[in-house]
Structures are given as structure tokens and as C-alpha cells.
Amino acid sequence: MKVLIDHQIFFQNRYGGISKIFSEIIRRLNERKIPFDTSVSIGDYNQGILRDPKTKLQVNQIPFFSLATVYFGILTFFKILRLPYPEFLTKRESGILRKSLSKNISILNGSVNRALTNHEYTVFHPTYFQDYYLSNLKESNTKMVLTVYDCVHELFPQFYGSNNFILRNRKSLCEASDHIICISETTKKDLIKWYPNIHSKNISVIYLAGNLSHHVESSIPFTNYILFVGNRSDYKNFNILLDAFVSIAKENEIHLVCAGGGKFRRQEKQWITSFGLESYVHQVNIDSEQFLANLYRKAKAFVYPSLYEGFGIPLLEAMSVGCPVLCSSIEVFHEVAGDAAMFFNPKDHLDLRTKILELLGSEKMRNELVQHGYIREKKFSWNQCADEHIQIYQSLSNHK
């Protein structure tokens, strides 16, 4: 058995998110001394550096004359003038970066295609939904595993456009796969609903994990706050948290800390200013997992208001360090959190407001959620996740 994992998601994401999944799998393939390669070297990925496996040269260094240079110049202009970044610009960052690095990405695509043509690997696991390899795969003996993280593009096409490459490619890639991995039963059910020709016997559910308890406790610049983590746009449903927070902040002297997701956009700043909450609502960048762990650890509660997710790693991250969880009453959150979270209607800000006040007013309730969270989080582990991936790789390698 020899596995090839490609480079797509490492150009698509900064450290974290989906790339976290593959980083954890790669670490354990290496620990178990299972033969594998990645089409891009990720040894320095947590520092934002990707390298060519052969030359060791950095392949994600933006050329001076490129679309990305213009893009970041425009963002710098807004920063100098202390203006919020336009939302249409921030949504295009990953696409602009990929376009500016297209020459290097094309070289890596070529190396993957040569490996497939030469039958160098028994299993190929692409990390995202570009289809640059599809014609070569059809001529190869290599088996393909595809991971489907969610069906958000199918459920919310208004946020992505009908020409989105994931919507264009998902069906054909699933049909070309020898095995599909979904990260929750909810995602599996959604995938079969949208693509009924995919046989469920070719789909496995492998849960993710999210333990941050190994990070040591340290001080942070906030006290008495509720926490929101990650992207705030579209189906993440952040606005409902803002609406619920209006009548809570000053009465209870509670703050809202938004970790990650970029600086507040124009509309968000206007909302915060209109209610006089500038000193109550804060945005901070996540510069390390240790910092994130301590944000969870010191929070009165973690609020996760999404309308849809494929899994929900932040639920487990919060539980692992003793943070009470308040989340949307959506199917996948019930699947992951079980009895270790308090749930609210994600379309009703008054319900969210009521639940936040209940938590803030009851130390007993918070402690009960914390204890249930410690137990629930232990049901998920990256070791188990990696073992189940390896079992699939082995099974496909033995049936060539």
C-alpha cells in the first residue's frame, strides 16, 4: 500500500479547517510508518509555507507582479484609511491567491497526473473538489478516496453562484471515486439526497475530533464574555447572535468576543455603533491553538448559531477545555454534541437571548454542561479518525 494525498486544500485554506483533518491523518501515517506522499510538503504549513517536495522551494510565495499583489494593495488602502473591507473583496481572497499561484499549482497538478499515469500509488486521496486529475485517473490502476465535508453548496447556492467549481465537479468526482468518506451521518444523508445515484455501500462515515486540552492555561485580554469562533458570513448566521446580544450586553456587563473570521465588515461595524456597543463587541485573530484553547476556557459560553454544518469541530474544542456550549438545534449538532449542549432555534433571536440569559444566570447549568462535555468529547479522537482512514486505504489496496 502507498497513498498519495494532494495539495488542493493547503492552497485553499490557511492552517486549520479542512486542512486540519489532513494534517492529523498525515501525522499518523508518518507515525505508523505507512508509505505515503503529499504532492506538496507541509512541514512548515503552520507558518504559512508550502514547499515543492523535490526542490524544497516555497510554492505559495506570491509573485510581485500578480493579481494578489493588487488585491492586498487595495486592502492596505482601506486599512490606512481605517475603512472596513468590502465583503465582496474578502470573499474572493482564496480564489485570487490560487489564481496568482496558478503556475506553481499547475506544476503540482502535473506531478500528480504523472504519478497516476505511472501507477506509483495504490490509493489517491484528493483534498478538495478540483478535477484536474480526472482524465488521468480513468487510465490509472490507482483507487481514489474522496471526502465530502458538507453539502452547503447544494443547500445554499445563493451564497456561491451556480458556476461554483464544487457544484460543477461534486457529482462527477463522487462517481469516479472508489470510496467516499463523509464526516457525519448528516452529511452522508444529504449527499445521497442530492446525488441518489451514489451507492450508500461505497460511503463511510468517519467522525472528526477537536481536543485542545493539551494546551497549557494562560492569560487572555478578556473577562466575562461569550465566545463566537470563525467565519461570520452567510449560513454561519452570525447576525442572529448580534440581534440576541443587543439587550444582554449592558444589562449584564457581558462582552462578545469573535475569534477569527477577519475584521468586522462595514455592516457589522454599523450595527455595533448604532447600538453603542463598541466597548462590548470585540474581534481577535487566532494566532495559535493555545490562544484559542484559552479563549474557550475562560468564556462563560461558546455560541455556535450556524444554519448548517458538515460536522462542527468547535463544539468538541469547547467541550475539551470545559466551556459550556450553546448551539443551533440542527441535525448535525445533535449528532455531534448529544446531551452536552444547550440548543436554540437558529431562526429565533429571542430564543437565543433567553438561552444565553439562562446560562449566564445559572452556574449549576454551566457546570452540568461542562461535565457532560468532557464525557462527550472523549467519544471522538484523531487517532480513531486516522485508523479508519487507514483501514479504507488498506481495503482498497488489497482489491486492486
Automatic annotation (TrEMBL):
GO BP terms, alphabetized: lipopolysaccharide biosynthetic process
Origin superkingdom: Bacteria
Domain Glycosyl transferase family span(s) in chain numbering: 224-374
Bilayer-crossing regions: none
InterPro entries: Glyco_trans_1, Glyco_trans_4-like_N
Cell cycle keyword on record: no
Keywords from the named record: Glycosyltransferase, Transferase
Molecular function GO terms recorded: glycosyltransferase activity
UniProt-listed Enzyme Commission number(s): 2.4.-.-
Residues in Glycosyltransferase subfamily 4-like N-terminal domain copies: 111-207
Keyword hit for Chloroplast: no
Protein known as: Glycosyltransferase, group 1 family protein
UniProt source species: Leptospira terpstrae serovar Hualin str. LT 11-33 = ATCC 700639
Classification of source organism: Bacteria, Pseudomonadati, Spirochaetota, Spirochaetia, Leptospirales
